[in-house]
């Protein structure tokens, strides 16, 4: 009896580990980093919010306007700062590297 229980448990573990492997499609993650600046003075915009609306995840720029967030190709990134219009950026899907840097300008 114990032999059969062990056999059933082994089959279940192997089955679940095969499911966790997925279909072989690997996500392509990109480290998007950059600085948020004002369009009129090119001053950095401290604590601007950066939000990936595709996966509902975000971050906040530091005191100098620098930010970094992990995204996927094709994601839509929203930038917000008090007193400025919200703007968006679509991550290019033709990137060959796993890092991408931008300078994002915010308009009043």
Features:
1 helix, four-stranded antiparallel β-sheet, alpha+beta, single chain, 108 residues, 18% helix
List strands and helices in order, with pairings:
Elements: H1 2-20, E1 30-38, E2 49-52, E3 57-60, E4 66-71, E5 76-80, E6 87-90, E7 99-106
Parallel strand pairs: 1-7
Antiparallel strand pairs: 1-4, 2-3, 2-5, 5-6
Give a description of the structure.
The longest helix has 19 residues, at 2-20. With 108 residues, this protein is α+β, with helices and mostly antiparallel strands. Helices cover 18% and strands 37% of the residues. It has a 4-stranded antiparallel sheet, with no helix packed on it. A 3-stranded mixed sheet has the order 4-1-7, with no helix packed on it. Mean pLDDT is 85; it is low at 17-24. Strand 2 (49-52) and strand 3 (57-60) form a beta hairpin. The chain is elongated, with a radius of gyration of 22 Å.
Q: Write down the secondary-structure element order.
A: HEEEEEEE
* Count of helical stretches: 1
Amino-to-carboxy terminus distance = 75 Å
Q: Which whole number gives the mean pLDDT?
A: 85
| Uncertain runs | 17-24
Structural class: alpha+beta
Number of DSSP strand runs: 7
Q: How does the major sheet shape up?
A: 4 strands, antiparallel
C-alpha-based Rg, rounded: 22 Å
What percentage of the residues does DSSP assign to strands (E)? 35-45%
Lateral arrangement of strands in the main beta sheet: 3-2-5-6
Tell the overall outline: elongated
What is the helical fraction, as a range of percent? 10-25%
């Amino acid at each position: 009896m114990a032999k059969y229980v062990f056999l059933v448990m082994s089959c279940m573990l192997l089955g679940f580990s095969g499911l966790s492997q997925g279909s072989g499609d690997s996500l392509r993650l990109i480290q998007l980093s950059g600085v948020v600046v004002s369009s009129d003075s090119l001053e950095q915009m401290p604590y601007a919010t950066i939000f990936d609306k595709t996966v509902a995840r975000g971050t906040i720029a530091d005191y100098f306007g620098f930010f970094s967030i992990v995204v996927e190709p094709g994601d839509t990134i929203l930038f917000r700062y008090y007193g400025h219009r919200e703007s968006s950026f679509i991550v290019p899907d033709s990137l060959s590297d796993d890092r991408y840097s931008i300078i994002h300008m915010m308009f009043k």
